[in-house]
Design a protein that fits this description.
This protein is an alpha/beta fold. It has helices at 15-18, 23-39, 83-90, 116-121, 138-148, 154-167, 183-195, 213-230, 241-246, and strands spanning 43-54, 57-68, 72-76, 98-103, 106-107, 123-127, 201-205, 233-238, 250-255, 258-262. The protein has a six-stranded mixed β-sheet with strand order 6-7-8-3-9-10. The protein binds adenosine-5'-diphosphate and magnesium ion.
């Protein structure tokens, strides 16, 4: 199979999933749908002249970045250059003070604490260190997230959890404790968790950083398949250039506080 970026197939719309929310939730969900349809474009991330700070320190200067639905983008750069800071800005952990930003229809300059959970419900986040709960099994790790995002119906939650576990190749692994699993399996659980709310965008912060080369290959193939099959956009931070050569896609490089567009061939 040749993997090059990922193809844009039509994205199935998950009406059924919206039936799972309470009336209270539906008010917000309807609001989200309206925001999305208002945007009326293929754009999922837009940063314009954004300055990104950690405390008082300017980490990234004048960031301009446009990402379309279904695109796969690598963000490369040495440790400490600001990859995580940029991703944190996109999921609302760092506030955008200067410049313009829009993610999945949410204006980052207007991101009140009430809106942050709504933004995150439109995103999946995958971490290098997995961040799974070690006191419960895989199933209950996933159920915890569903409950926290408003799901109530046990049968529907079970169906959803089985669905995402199957997507990441972990069917029938729901009763495993996370500490019993290999790094690759834990990363699959992390990805399953990111898929729970059918995100249009997944932000992956060095998702293969703790994995051996063979497992890295398996995880990269999984990410590319998700991108292709569900038209999920990805921004993946990495400093592993061999991955990019093996799985080419659009690349942006962070250097000297700037974000530059480069080609996969140029890494
Ligand atoms: N919570 C924080 N408080 C203050 N400075 C931070 C914090 N997190 C990161 N930084 C600083 O911001 C810069 C960018 O860090 P980071 O975004 O984590 O880079 P990367 O992910 O590329 O390694 C570094 O100089 C780092 O020391
Ligand atoms: Mg980082």
């Amino acid at each position: 199979m040749i993997l090059n970026g990922c193809s844009n197939y039509g994205q199935p719309f998950f009406y059924k999933d919206y039936a799972r929310y309470s009336v209270f939730e539906i008010i917000f969900v309807t609001n989200e749908l309206m925001m999305d349809s208002d945007s009326n474009s293929n754009n999922i991330v837009s940063l314009k002249q954004a300055n990104i700070y950690q405390g008082n320190t300017l980490v990234l200067n004048n960031v301009n970045l446009e990402v379309d639905k279904g695109e796969f983008i690598y963000m490369i750069g040495k440790t400490g250059t600001g990859k995580s800071s940029l991703l944190k800005t996109l999921y609302g952990e760092l506030y955008l003070n200067e410049g313009e930003g829009n993610v999945a229809g949410f204006d980052l300059k207007d991101l009140t604490w009430q809106k942050i959970p709504l933004l995150r419900r439109n995103l999946g986040i995958v971490f290098q260190d997995f961040r799974l709960l070690t006191d419960r099994d895989v199933y209950h790790n996933l159920e915890f997230v569903l409950k926290a995002t408003g799901w109530k119906d046990k049968a529907l939650m079970k169906e959803k959890i089985e669905n995402v576990l199957s997507k990441v190749g972990l069917k029938n692994k729901g009763n495993k404790m996370t500490y019993e699993m290999s790094g690759g399996e834990q990363q699959r659980v992390d990805i399953a968790r990111a898929l729970l709310n059918n995100p249009k965008l997944i932000l992956a912060d060095e998702p293969t950083g703790n994995l051996d080369p063979d497992t890295t290959d398996e995880i990269m193939q999984l990410l590319f398949n998700i991108c292709r099959d569900y038209q999920t956009a990805f921004i993946m931070a990495t400093h592993d250039y061999t991955i990019i050569q093996k799985y080419p896609a659009r690349v942006v490089r962070i250097e000297n506080g700037m974000v530059k567009e480069i080609s996969a061939a140029g890494v």
